[in-house]
Amino acid sequence: MKKVYLVSDNIISPLGFSTEENIQKLRANQTGIKEVNDPTIWSEPFYGAVIDNDKLVKAWKKISNDPGYTKLEKMMLLSVSKLIADNPSLDITNSGIIISTTKGNINDLKKDSDEKAYLSSISKTIHHFFKTKHAPVVLSNACISGGLALAIGKRMIQSEVRDDVVVIGGDLLSEFTLSGFFSFQAVSSAPCKPFCKHRTGISLGEAAACTWLSSNKNNVQGEVISITGDASANDANHISGPSRTGEGLFISIQKALKEADLDRNQVDYITAHGTATPFNDEMEAIAFTRAGMQRTPINSLKGYYGHTLGASALIESIIARHCLINNELFASLGFEELGVSEPINIIIKNDKKKLNRVLKTASGFGGCNVALIIEKM
Amino acid sequence: MIKEKYYISDFCIIRDNRVFKNGEQIYVDTESENLKDFAKGIYKFMELKYPKFHKMDELCKLGFLASEVLLKDVENLREDTALVLSNKASSLDTDRKHQISIQDKNNFYPSPAVFVYTLPNIILGEISIKNKMKSENAFFVTETFDAGFITKYSKVLMHTGKASNVICGWVDLDNDKYDVFLAFLSKKGKKELTKEELNKLYRSNSYG
Fold first, then answer.
1. CA nearest to A298, candidates A351, A258, A247, A259
2. Predicted confidence (pLDDT) at residue B138 exceeds the cutoff of 70
């Protein structure tokens, strides 16, 4: 089967509007999470990672004079426009496009016309803006969407259904999702603290990102990075509670390692889901331990971005690619003291280290899990 | 390209107050005044005893019932049977309920039991739990049933060894209008899986 290369990427987040800006902020251990005072999202101040609208509009005006797009659409279109500008050899019109989002333009549900609240409206927007040949398909698979979209893109290329795939992910920090997570009592009253003893829940964030996957190695400039294994498995246990045994995540990891033909000891680090809810982080620690990987260095990037839902696993995979290229590890921000039952190896300080392989995982509502092996070739 | 042949072994449609299995009408209900009662009628007809059903939102009920009809005669369902579903309205039916519960600051009552159903892939979780399928799941949103894409991706899953079988289809619910089509895909069978064939089956048992 064909090999699949990660060629180029972009991240639009509170930490910056390019992947490089984002990396610089991570290197300085700076977070995008802050106290948000925005009554249109929540009546009281809360901690979250939001994109400054003025900054976004300013960047948007450089690519279009049309104000008739939602905030999320601007974020996504800006992200892909930057990817195209950086990569003259990318033929977006002939690429397969997978859009990863959980709630899309959900704020439009309040409006008289809720046309844009339909997720396919984002597909149409991208289709028209970039004049793509194939209609983009939307994947809405809870918190694993961004990682699963990469897996699906990889499989389409492996099977020669497409030569190139662009995965675009994005979600907003909305009243809709925040109120839901508050009703679950799953929102942290301080910036989130993944895997920490003092964690009390998630911080939400918003972001958009995109990645170009290609079957053509000649498109790659510099270090060659490939997705060599992937798998997704349902817990078949509960729709909103993580499996107590980490079953689906464990199966996903085993299958991804097998496809990549790797032993667990060959993985240099894990960039986990780590939402900082008590149950999720515990489940992940159990799954990593069952997979024999409790000594593998591990981080969660939720302390930098908050939980960006449909964008999160995509952003974390993009960062993983750059960590491989730069041979560096980022501290798991917010972590103080181990707060899971298994002694997993949380990265507490940035580090420079020769890296060849990363395991990226994500888990979500509906009992879904995904694992990706991202590898230096 | 994928050269292996794959097959459609069974299909189920829930549409216009009726349930069809492999093209034949197995249930009709012109009495029920709402979807909830219609779904309950199918549940009784199928002689199901599954208390979790009553907690599901209407979209999940529809997908769940179709999966029960589809899988009724499938023996030894494999744990690595993938689920590839799609629709147009995502979870908007329940999204609207959650939105109503947060619209008015003086009457603010968001509920976790509703919020959890504001994701379309929950239906995949419900079907996986019932059938103990620890398998590949994906939920896509497209403007109309995209037989071409669903055929391609289902073939890719079996071709890359990610799944031995696939349950694919369309489970849509929007403002009480519903349309459900599920198909069971295998590596053996008589009816070859093609975009045209899947589309033909999807369009069967329709009025007008």
1. A351
2. yes
